From TrEMBL:
Organism domain of life: Eukaryota
Keywords: Membrane, Transmembrane, Transmembrane helix
Name of this protein: NADH-ubiquinone oxidoreductase 14 kDa subunit
Transmembrane regions: 32-48
């Protein structure tokens, strides 16, 4: 979170330098304006951090709902979960990857076993 705030704070200061450079005015004629531009940039960075957090939460909830829906459908149809994403997604780790879920049913597996790797937990 701090990196976004620092970046946008620096961006606000850069905008002030750019503005004075375009106007061909001395950089330190009004030094009180720099903290204002820095604070404006920092507040924008803080707002962007909140937007990113809410978008990531929405993506996680949507992914979890989709995986749960696929699991229920597989249980209803009585088969294995065969479609939890593309092959590329199955091999990936992280937020945007499909969780690796393996459901085995058969004579050698009593009552079906659900194994979840660390991506699914």
């Amino acid at each position: 979170m701090v990196n976004k705030i620092l970046f946008w704070s620096g961006f606000g200061l850069t905008v002030r330098f750019w503005q004075l450079g375009i106007e061909m005015r001395p950089f330190f004629s009004q030094p009180w304006a720099y903290p204002i531009y820095g604070c404006i940039g920092a507040s924008f960075g803080y707002w962007m951090q909140g937007v990113e957090g809410s978008q990531m939460r929405y993506l996680r909830e949507t992914r979890d709902r989709l995986v749960e829906k696929r699991r229920r459908r597989a249980e209803r149809e009585g088969g294995n979960i065969g479609n939890v994403g593309t092959e590329y997604q199955k091999e990936q780790e992280g937020l945007f990857a499909s969780p690796k879920v393996l459901v085995e049913r058969g004579e050698h597996v009593p009552n079906g076993t659900v194994e979840r790797t660390q991506a699914a937990q």
